[in-house]
Structure formats: structure tokens, C-alpha cells
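Progress against Task 2.4 (sequence-to-structure conversion) is shown through the following example record, which the project officer requested during the mid-term review.
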Amino acid sequence: MLPGTTQAGGLAQAVLTLLQHRGGSWMGWSGGTAPEVVPTVQQQGRIRYVTWDLPRGEFDDFYAEYSNRTLWPLLHGRTDLMAFDRTHLQGYLRVNERFAEFVANEAGPHDVIWIHDYHLMPLASLLRARGLTNRIGFFLHTPLPAPRTLVTLPQHRAMLGLLAACDVIGLQTANDARAMTNYLVAELGATEGDGVLQLPSGECTRVRAFPIGIDPAGMAALAHEAERLPEIQQLRGSLGRSSLVIGVDRLDYSKGLPQRLRAFRHLLGNNPSLAGRATYLQVTPESRRDISEYRQLSREVQRLVGDINGHFAAPAWTPVRYVNRGYSHATLAGFYRLARVCVVTPLRDGMNLVAKEYLACQNPEDPGVLVLSEFAGAAAELGDCALIVNPYDIEGCSRAMARALTMPLEERLRRWHAAMRILEDGNVRRWSENFLAALDQPRLPRCAAMVAA
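C-alpha cells generated for the chain above:
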């Protein structure tokens, strides 16, 4: 989906920032459906957007089914929710073939091709089959589970083995890179030497961790400007003497929303002095409404919100404000700046850029506190700057929220300054430069690419 919409997430913003600096073509699904698949081209500054609709049936197989009901739960370790149907796999491969056709028509012989995320795992192999010898990189924005979990995917060798057609496979953390390496070695018989993995077929690839970053200076400026927005001023005025606790997550079972709400309920129940003094704003755009697991999660979250508000609310205070809509990046930046605490407690997450964006948006003279799940990729970088929690430990999360709300300014400043050094050292431009530099290394030998049956 194109950036600049309220639905555009961390991946879209990161790639947009890269292309604004380097120029290039952004190619992908438009976000719409139509009977005919005809690419449209728009030029905006240095970026050429090539997008297309998908027929409804292909969209369902590719996106709603195989991507989101097979690969997404697999990659987040929820094999109990994983569904598999060969028809959906074939639809997933057909859409990847469409991508291959359009990318092959667009790419010049010396262009670098950077493929993003689990929706397009076969694409590099399909491009090789069309004769492209370009440097091709793949980046997985989700976490990657251990090989023993990956093998539960039907036809996993045929699907995951296609990634070896890439010159570089990038992942969010060292643990994810290790999981990919271990899978290629244990399940596909790859041999490792000098940082290169060679499969028995002759395919060679490099696997490395590239923790994705943000534009901290840009986010800070956006947050400062956002303080004047009417929505931000209205929110500030509505809080009164209450401190704002914020969570921003797409509605998804990987985000730990029920556990987080139970922790906030525990916080209020064990700290009567917080009545009227702590307001939790949960911004949760709903997605994937056609999937039963998401409808069930929505009902559970709404029930928990109602339970907290029914038990603790007063005429002039609503403990939880639950909003099922997206906001612009500028408005979110303003929300982050107002919040004394940001709670980012996924059960599993590749990185989670909300954690980084919240820190970048803070008032340098009076920063807030990040409560962060140990199972978010961001914890590997921000462990000493945030309060790290296990999201399954409801009481532990509750204690961390209480500590965050009462943390002295001196400690908040120390943690925030340490976090900003990390964010600036690993900003989004550095992330993209490091990945592209890895692609610029000497070419690897390559044989004919395999294609999943």
C-alpha cells in the first residue's frame, strides 16, 4: 500500500524515507481490487510509483489466506492458528508471478532489486527464472521462528528454499538471522563458510541481521510541530490531571492486547491512588476483518475495555479510551509526545517501530518512559533504555507501568539520552545503507533458480 495513508505502517515509512533520499521505483499492490491487472505509474519527486490492483479471488488467496492465515501465524510461532490449502498456495504463487512480470519489465540491467517481506518469498527465484542477473536482496520484517517451527509449513523446503535466489537475506535481529542460517543448514543441506551459505543446488546467499531504524530527527521535528494540532490540544485538555499511557498497535493476536489490558486493570486495582490520574489510550486500527481469529480478538479486547471502564470509571474519568481507527503519522507523533508512558508489549514482533518512534517524539526536557516486551526485536537494542517485561507476566507488567508513571526525571533523562544515541546510530538511512552495502559485495556464484511446485 502506498505511504501517506493512515494505514501505512513502519515498513512503508522506512522504505519511503530511503527512496526519498536515493530515488528509485516503488512497486507493489495498490491496496485495491479490480477485474483487470493494469499497472499505473506516478512520479512524485524522485520516486516512481508502479502499482496495480488485484482480482478479488487472487487477493483472497494471496493476501487474506496464504500470507495472513498461513505465513503470518507461522512466522509468529502460532502454528495452532496456521491454515493451509493448496489452492491458496497456488494463488500466492500466481500473484508473485505478476510481481515478477512487472518488476522484470521495469528493472534495468544494473538496477538493485530490494524485496520486502513474507508476501514475496518466491519473487527473487521467479526473477532469476526470467533471466535477471541483478543484485537482489530480501528483507523479512517479521520475526523468524526456530527451524523446528518452520518445518510445520507444508512444502517448507520448496517455499523457504526459494530465498536462496537472493544475494542477501536480511532479518531484524541476530536471533532471527541465526534461525534462518540454522534452517538452511539443517533442512536444505547448506554449507556455511566465510559468511556465505551454499545450497546443494549451487545457490549461494548471505544471511545477516539489519535492525530496521527510524528517522529520529524527523520524528522529533514532527512531534514538536504536532503539539499545535487541534487533535493534540483537545487530547491534552481532556486529560486534566491524568497522565497519558499509550499503546498503538494494529489489531493482531501477536500484539498482546488482552494481556496488556489485564495488566492495566491490575495496575488500577492495586494502586487506588491512580484513580483519575492515569488514562490509557489504545489506538488499534482493525484489519483482516474477514479472518475469524481477528473477529474473536476484537470481541475479547472490547469486552476487557468495557470491564475496566465499568469497574473503575468515574463521571469525569474514563480509564481506557479504545479507538479503532488509524491516524496520520503527524497526529501519532503528537500523541506520543503527550504520553508519559508507552506500552509496547507484543507476544512476538520482528522489531516494532512504535517503540522507537515514541522515544524519538519525547520532550527532551521531560521525556516519558517506554515499557517494552522482551519478545519485540527492539528489546535487543533498547534493553537498557526501557523497562523490559514479559507480556505474559500480568503482575510484572503492571509493576512496570506503575514504575514508569512514578519514575524520577533524572532516571527518565538518563534512559532517554541513551536511547537517542542508539536510535541515531541505527537510523533508517544507516539501515538501508548497510543493507545495500552488503548487496554491493562481490557477486556470488549462482545456478538456475528453483521454483515451488
